[in-house]
Structure formats: structure tokens, C-alpha cells
């Protein structure tokens, strides 16, 4: 229990304290310290889980599947906090934000981290819902932080779409609870995931089938699946850049995590019916459509943050598809892809934050010659995009290769779609990237103070994962795979 | 599925749920904001009454508590907050012109039929009560959704959102005898925070486009 408390209490207490801190410097450092403590707690938690398999109690349950996402969340939370401190100082210096809003920013940052961690650690489907809805509430004011008409519009859209989506997910949760009550003697535990999983075979398949559709549409809205993705590019492009990094790197993962947990229940319930792979087929369909549509939309973007948010939709679609394919290899690939995508995408958003400060705009057409003006930013962006586009030797290549192999084994025809999608996405990213990093810099463009440490650390890790996945991590992911599919790959 | 064979209390629950569904239609077609808020408050009171009736049938003691929670939150606090916001925004006399009122109500009817159709195969074990109640709550949720799509006024959209939540509460309470207490408290807390944030956004939207007609929020588009 102690490691779990060390993971959850710092963001809770720190978040409340940060609402009160007036000075920006202090708030930034406190934010950093809180995030650091959370990471320590999560590492301790991971170490405990490695020894005892499952940590459970007080309605929480941590196993091999969620523990790696917990560590990832805490880690990206820390590196984004490192980036956010100088970034927000720059924002304040430019006068786009009031002191009150800055206090709000730091408090809500930790509130968001707390909801993410609660969603990942809880064993109760109801609490999971409350936490995911809480994540919307924590971030919606951050999206409108700059108070421009565009930001307010993006925030309203985000609020309404995610609110409606998540309401449908609650209906699905109620239906699941209803199905559980027909089976379980102790009705109070009818929302406890581990109990439901143990009795999955007995849950009424008709109810679970309808419930899953609601749950998928609901949580799928937060994953950013097409056609419920409309909020995502707006929220990413109008909010402050550290927010874009954690939204893309963490929130989408957590929503997908919820979908996969629920798929495990539905698969158990439908196993004996004539449509045992219904949940998987739905995930494949939504995933593939998101993947292809987002890849095409990459070509039309004019705002650099919108560009990379569409890239996030594309990758989330790919992961959803892979979880839908099922089977140990595809699941292992999807889990690895969640990890490398988070690391790479948050690194890209950090770089983009610096690039927009350098150019003074988010418009792709006016960001030019990054390498000439400030090589560190230019090269970081270049390598980040090379990594996210799936080039070897970066980790995204490894996971995408695994996914393609798994698809080839089970649904060979889809490999064609996936490969062409990847090619389209690659072209979409590079046609915008090339002039941004290599073009001639506009006159008078001067370097800005940049802290690229998070980018180097993230890209270094992704490179490491591409060259050689460390043994303990592979084993860790394999245990998660075995948990989800019933069989490992190693 | 004959309603007459059900226990009296269950029949009463179905009656209350049907009234809530009727109020959803009233909400859908009501163009005056203040009147719509009153309708919403009555709907909340009906959901609270359903909770109380289910609590009377006896299984879960904490349902009395959640009945009081629902009454305070849905019938008093949130309507009061909305009322206050509407006054502060100077919208007491605001009426919205619906583009196709008859069509919207027809769409609502279609959604009710759809809900029953969806639920039909689900409860073949002869639970007429559960089937009715799940279908009605699903209809409440979907009509709330319809209202959010058809209305262009931010306050009316929030009313649609809140009546969706009423449908969810109804489903949770009557089909399953209430969610665990911690979940119910969490949902109520989220709802309250959402209401506060909606209030903040009303002012932000008015500041940015000088009206609460969200159709005018159209700066962010894919094609420029």
C-alpha cells in the first residue's frame, strides 16, 4: 500500500497546495518536486509489482498491465513539468496570461495527473469513469487558458463532446453493472473489475454486447477515434503546449487502457456465443478508419500543433486496431507502441513549444529555417518526426514492425492498408517538416533559451527501445500481454 | 409483458419514469430558458422520487441517502445555479427560435422507439420492469443528446447535458438498485464541478463572441 500512497498522495496534496502558491518560480519548482515524488512512488510500485505480481486493496489493483502505464504517466508528467517551468515563464513574460490563471495552471496540472493515476490504479469501473471524466474537467480550463476566442471555442467543443461521450460510457457501465447483478451474489462488488473478470464467462452476452458499444463510443471519444475525434486537434492546438504534450502522451493512453480492460470482460462474456470476436472487430474497424482518415488529414494541416495532433489520432488508431486484432504478438506490439508513441509524441510537442516561441507563430508556413537559427531545436524536431514516422532504428519502427507481422499472420489483406497508411502519413509529415527545418530563416529570427533535456531523454529512450529492448521491460510487457490475451510471446 | 402483474411499487416507478420521459419532450420543445430550467428541476425531482421508491422496496439502505443527494443536486442546486447564471447573463426573457420544432419532437419519438427496440433482446428473461426502465432511461439519454445537437444556445445545451445525466441516474437507480456509494458520490461530484465550469464558460463565451449562440463559435475549421 505504501508505494501506492506515495504515487497518489503527491499530486493530491501538491495540487491543492499549488492553487495557493502565488510566485511563478516557486510554483514551477514545487510542481517539479511533486512530479518527481510521484515518479519515485511509481517506480517503487513497479518494483513491488515485479515481486508480488498483483498489489490490491482499498479498491485499487495494480498488475503488470497498468503498472507500466503508471510509470510512463509519472515519467512523462515529470519531464513535461521540467519543460513547463521555463515555458510558462516565457508565456507570462509575453503577457498572454494573468497571475491567477497561472496558479490555476499548476494546480490543475497536478489535478490532471491525479485523475490519470487514479484511472490507472483503480479496480472499480465506476471510479474509472469518475476519474476519466475528472480528467476532462481538469484540462478543460487549461485549454481555454489564453482566453482567445479560438481557445474558448476549442475548450467548449472539448467539454461538450467529451462530456457527451463519457456520459454514454456511464450508460455502458450501468449496463455492465446490471449484467453483473444477474450473476453475482454480492452486488456491491458488481463494478469491481477483478471480480467481473473472474465471472466474465457468466455475464449475459446480449447485455454485454450493447454495453460494450456504449463503452467503446464513450471512451473512444477520449481516445480520439474517428468520427468522435473533432475535439482533439482543436484542444491540442489552442491549449498551452505542455498540456498538448500530456494530453497526447498520457490521456489518450489512459482512455485506450479503459477500452482494453473492458474488452477483456466482453471477450470473456462472448466467448461461448456465435460472435466471440465482436469487440475485437469493432476495435479493428474504428482503429483502421481513424488511422487512414488521420493519415490523409495530415496533408492539409496549416498549424504545427494540429499537424501533430492528427499524427496522435493516427497512432491511437493503429494501437486500437492492434488490440482489436488480438493475439499475443499484436497485443505485445500495441503495448510497446503505447510506450514509444507517448515518449516520442511528448518529445515532439516539447520541441514544437520551443519552435513556436522561436518563430512567434504556430502557422507552419511561417516557421522556417529552424536548423539555421537554432540547430538544437531544428535537429530535435527532425529526429522526433523521423522517430514518429517509424524509421529504424527508433522504437516506433520496432512496434510497427511487430504490428505488421501480427496483421500479416491473421488478416494479410489489412497489411496493404496499413502499409499505404504509413506511407501516406510519412509523406504528410515530411512535406511540412522539410521547409520548417531546412528552409531559409526569416530575417531577424533569433535563438530563444530552450531546455531540450526532456527531448533528448525521451528520444534517447526511444532509440534504446529500437536498438535493444532491455530484458526486464520485455518480460514486463510480456506479462501484460499474457494478462490480456492469456498467452505471452516470449 | 403486462404491467398489471408487476408489484405496485414497481408500477409506480414505471409511472414516474414515464413522467420523466414526458418532461424530456417538454424540455426538447421549450423555447423559454427559465421555463426550461423549471422543467429540468421537476425532472430531477422525479428521478429523486424514483430513487426513494426503489429504496422503499428494501434492498439497499444507502438508496435513501442517494435519493436525498439526487433531490438536492438535481432538483435544487443545479437548477438554482442555472437560474442565477441566467439572471446574471440577463437572459431571463430569452427565447430561442427552434428551426423545425415538429421534426425535432418526431426525432425524439423515433429515439424512444429505437431505445425499446435495442433493449428488446436484452431482457428476455421476462423482466418487464427492467426492460421498461432501461428503455426509458436510454430514451432520456438519447433525447438529451438530441437536444444538445439541435439547440444552439449554450444554456440550453447544458440543460440537454444535465437531462442526459438524469437518464443515467434513473438507469443506475432502478435497473440495478443503485451504484456503490463511492461511485455515486464521485459522479455527483463530477457533475457539480462540471456545472461550475459550465458557468465559467458561459462568461468566457459571451466575452469572446458577445452572445451565447454557440453556432457563432466557428473560427476553428479544417479548411481555411
Strand order of the largest sheet of chain A: 1-2
The proportion of residues forming helix of chain B, as a percent range, comes to over 70%
Number of helices of chain A: 19
Determine Rg of chain A (CA atoms, Å): 21 Å
Strand portion of chain A: under 5%
| Oligomer status | heterodimer
Average pLDDT of chain A: 90
The overall strand count of chain B is 0
- Write the H/E string of chain A, N to C: HHEEHHHHHHHHHHHHHHHHH
Total helices of chain B: the number is 7
Return the average pLDDT of chain B rounded to an integer.
86
Summing up helix and strand content along with how strands pair, one would put the structural category of chain A as mainly alpha
Shape of chain A: globular
The major β-sheet of chain A equals: 2 strands, antiparallel
Kindly state the percentage of residues in helix of chain A.
Answer: over 70%
Total tally of structural domains of chain B: 1
DSSP strand tally of chain A: 2
End-to-end CA span of chain B: 56 Å
Which pair has the most extensive contact? A-B, 50 and 53 residues
Amino acid at each position: 500500500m505504501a508505494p501506492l500512497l506515495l504515487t497518489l498522495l503527491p499530486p493530491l496534496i501538491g495540487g491543492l497546495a499549488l492553487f495557493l502558491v502565488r510566485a511563478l518560480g516557486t510554483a514551477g519548482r514545487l510542481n517539479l518536486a511533486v512530479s518527481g515524488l510521484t515518479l519515485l512512488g511509481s517506480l517503487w510500485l513497479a518494483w513491488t509489482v515485479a515481486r508480488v505480481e498483483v498489489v490490491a486493496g482499498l479498491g485499487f489493483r495494480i498488475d503488470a498491465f497498468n503498472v507500466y502505464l503508471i510509470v510512463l504517466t509519472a515519467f512523462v508528467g515529470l519531464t513535461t513539468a521540467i519543460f513547463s517551468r521555463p515555458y510558462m515563464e516565457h508565456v507570462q513574460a509575453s503577457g498572454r496570461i494573468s497571475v491567477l490563471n497561472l496558479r490555476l495552471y499548476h494546480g490543475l496540472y497536478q489535478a490532471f495527473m491525479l485523475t490519470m493515476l487514479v484511472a490507472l490504479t483503480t479496480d472499480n469501473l465506476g471510479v474509472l469513469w469518475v476519474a476519466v471524466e475528472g480528467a476532462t474537467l481538469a484540462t478543460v480550463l487549461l485549454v481555454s487558458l489564453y482566453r482567445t476566442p479560438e481557445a474558448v471555442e476549442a475548450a467548449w467543443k472539448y467539454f461538450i463532446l467529451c462530456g457527451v461521450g463519457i456520459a454514454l460510457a456511464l450508460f455502458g457501465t450501468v449496463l455492465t453493472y446490471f449484467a453483473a447483478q444477474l450473476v453475482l451474489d454480492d452486488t456491491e462488488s458488481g463494478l469491481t473489475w477483478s471480480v467481473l473478470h473472474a465471472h466474465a464467462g457468466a455475464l449475459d452476452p446480449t447485455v454485454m454486447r450493447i454495453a460494450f458499444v456504449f463503452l467503446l463510443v464513450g471512451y473512444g471519444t477520449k481516445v480520439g477515434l474517428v468520427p468522435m475525434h473533432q475535439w482533439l486537434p482543436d484542444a491540442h492546438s489552442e491549449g498551452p503546449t505542455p498540456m498538448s504534450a500530456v494530453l497526447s502522451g498520457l490521456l489518450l493512453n489512459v482512455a485506450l487502457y479503459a477500452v482494453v480492460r473492458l474488452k477483456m470482460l466482453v471477450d470473456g462474456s462472448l466467448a461461448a456465443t456465435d460472435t466471440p470476436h465482436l469487440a475485437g472487430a469493432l476495435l479493428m474497424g474504428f482503429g483502421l478508419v481513424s488511422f487512414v482518415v488521420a493519415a490523409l488529414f495530415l496533408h492539409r494541416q496549416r498549424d504545427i500543433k494540429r499537424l501533430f495532433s492528427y499524427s496522435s489520432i493516427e497512432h491511437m488508431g493503429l494501437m486500437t486496431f492492434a488490440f482489436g486484432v488480438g493475439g499475443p504478438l499484436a497485443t505485445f506490439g500495441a503495448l510497446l507502441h503505447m510506450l514509444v508513441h507517448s515518449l516520442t509524441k511528448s518529445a515532439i510537442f516539447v520541441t514544437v513549444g520551443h519552435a513556436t516561441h522561436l518563430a512567434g507563430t504556430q502557422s507552419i508556413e511561417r516557421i522556417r529555417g529552424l536548423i539555421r537559427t537554432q540547430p538544437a531545436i531544428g535537429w530535435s524536431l527532425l529526429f522526433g518526426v523521423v522517430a514518429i514516422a517509424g524509421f529504424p532504428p527508433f522504437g516506433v519502427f520496432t512496434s510497427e514492425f511487430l504490428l505488421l507481422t501480427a496483421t500479416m499472420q491473421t488478416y494479410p489483406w489489412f497489411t496493404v492498408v496499413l502499409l499505404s497508411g504509413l506511407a501516406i502519413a510519412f509523406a504528410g509529415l515530411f512535406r511540412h517538416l522539410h521547409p520548417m527545418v531546412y528552409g531559409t530563416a526569416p530575417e531577424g529570427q533569433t535563438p530563444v533559451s530552450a531546455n531540450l533535456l526532456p527531448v533528448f531523454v525521451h528520444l534517447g529512450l526511444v532509440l534504446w527501445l529500437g536498438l535493444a529492448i532491455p530484458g526486464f521491460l520485455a518480460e514486463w510487457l510480456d506479462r501484460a500481454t499474457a494478462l490480456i490475451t492469456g498467452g505471452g510471446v516470449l | 409483458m403486462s404491467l398489471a402483474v408487476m408489484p405496485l411499487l414497481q408500477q409506480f416507478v414505471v409511472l414516474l419514469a414515464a413522467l420523466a420521459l414526458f418532461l424530456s419532450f417538454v424540455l426538447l420543445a421549450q423555447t423559454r430558458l427559465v421555463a426550461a430550467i423549471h422543467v429540468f428541476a421537476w425532472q430531477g425531482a422525479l428521478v429523486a422520487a424514483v430513487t426513494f421508491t426503489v429504496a422503499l422496496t428494501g434492498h439497499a439502505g444507502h438508496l435513501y441517502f442517494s435519493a436525498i443527494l439526487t433531490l438536492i443536486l438535481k432538483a435544487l442546486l443545479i437548477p438554482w445555479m442555472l437560474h442565477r447564471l441566467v439572471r446574471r447573463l440577463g437572459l431571463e426573457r430569452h427565447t430561442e427560435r427552434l428551426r423545425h420544432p415538429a421534426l425535432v419532437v418526431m426525432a425524439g419519438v423515433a429515439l424512444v422507439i429505437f431505445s425499446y427496440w435495442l433493449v428488446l433482446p436484452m431482457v428476455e428473461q421476462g423482466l418487464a420492469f427492467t426492460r421498461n426502465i432501461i428503455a426509458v432511461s436510454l430514451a432520456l439519454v438519447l433525447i438529451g443528446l438530441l437536444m444538445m445537437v439541435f439547440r444552439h444556445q449554450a444554456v440550453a445545451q447544458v440543460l440537454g447535458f444535465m437531462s442526459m445525466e438524469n437518464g443515467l441516474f434513473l438507469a443506475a437507480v432502478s435497473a440495478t438498485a443503485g451504484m456503490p456509494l463511492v461511485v455515486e458520490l464521485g459522479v455527483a461530484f463530477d457533475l457539480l464541478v462540471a456545472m461550475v465550469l459550465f458557468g465559467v464558460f458561459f462568461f468566457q463565451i459571451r466575452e469572446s463572441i458577445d452572445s451565447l449562440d454557440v453556432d457563432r463559435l466557428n473560427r476553428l475549421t479544417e479548411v481555411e
